[in-house]
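Consider this record:
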Amino acid sequence: MSEERQVREKKLKKARWYNDRNRIYKACLIYLDLLRQDPNNQAALEDLAQIYMDRGDSLLAAICYGWLLSQEPSRQDLVLKEAQCHFQAGYNFLSLKALSRVSDWDSNYEEEALMAKSQIHVALGNELESIHLLNQLIEKYPNALYYMILAELLEQHELYHCAMEACRRGLKREPYQDELLSLKARLHLYLGEYANSRKIYLKMIKNHMYLEDARLDLEDFLAEKGNVPDVMALLRFFDEMPQED
């Protein structure tokens, strides 16, 4: 190894030492100095891009990832990061364009790519395409979280029965997923099935699950629909519950 390369390796190691200890400003100074000396140092630029991304400087990070991809266009992990940066910066079309450059995703990245595309289409107002992508995602990766995201999207369009089915399928995967249970109880409220909501709340109480979201759902429902006696009774039930220390 040449002396010049050894010096660069030492600088990279030093920058990473500072970065690992959250001394970001010092790390950035060393990374930038290293890149002035060696503009093609991809390891330094990738580290710097991640720092920009972590601190919310999405546009700077996107520029870094764009350059890295010009050198290694087949790296799908960098494509995902560039797309995420554009999405965080509000440039949804650029984010979608970045993802569209990959026609055949590796198994390591396909799940994240499908989720990212779905989020972008929601931001663009293309809910039907987002639902289509979520169904693809669920078919290949049946995670309870994806059922919940699908159910929430359907709920926003008042497709309560379809949202309920997504909840049921998700809860078959994770019967005690508290967010899915809260969502299912909320859907029962909007379908007028108050006794079913109560059953879910009792299940959550029995299993010492998080209840604050469920209580807020009741308050929001009453604020929207007015004083529905059955729902007011559910809220009183929550208020009268013994408080745990």
About this structure: The chain is about 80% helix and 0% strand. The longest helix spans residues 3-20. The mean pLDDT is 94.
